């Protein structure tokens, strides 16, 4: 894992323009701030891995992934394609969402949870 964190940190540090290539110009400053945040969190993750702190590492991985997710959303401000006429008037999801699911097992027990899409 240490090598993967090092490679990710090097990519963020050495190639920010390549990582921001898909971000529209009006969102470039926000994209750069997200890369800075990811870089900072990767450095903290690197320390957690080096000092063998799994709880701290887990939190930092989640923070890095959130920054990457927000950067991905900046890259796709709208739908990149046209919808067929039949569905243009229907509701649609543009971006990310959290879906709450409740599942009933065969014995009647319920189990709920969230799914991120």
UniProtKB/TrEMBL annotation:
InterPro entries, per the entry: CYP37-like (IPR044259), PsbQ-like_dom_sf (IPR023222)
Keywords tagged on the record: Isomerase, Thylakoid
Keyword Nucleotide-binding included in the entry's annotation: no
Molecular function per GO: isomerase activity
Taxonomy, superkingdom: Eukaryota
Protein name as catalogued: Peptidyl-prolyl cis-trans isomerase, chloroplastic
């Amino acid at each position: 894992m240490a090598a993967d964190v090092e490679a990710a940190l090097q990519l963020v540090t050495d190639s920010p323009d390549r990582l921001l290539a898909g971000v529209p110009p009006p969102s470039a400053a926000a994209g750069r701030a997200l890369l800075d945040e990811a870089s900072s969190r990767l450095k903290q993750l690197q320390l957690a891995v080096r000092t063998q702190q799994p709880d701290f590492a887990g939190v930092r991985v989640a923070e890095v992934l959130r920054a990457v997710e927000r950067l991905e959303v900046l890259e796709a401000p709208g739908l990149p394609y046209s919808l067929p006429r039949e569905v243009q008037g229907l509701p649609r999801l543009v971006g990310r969402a959290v879906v709450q699911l409740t599942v009933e097992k065969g014995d009647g027990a319920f189990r709920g949870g969230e799914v991120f899409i």
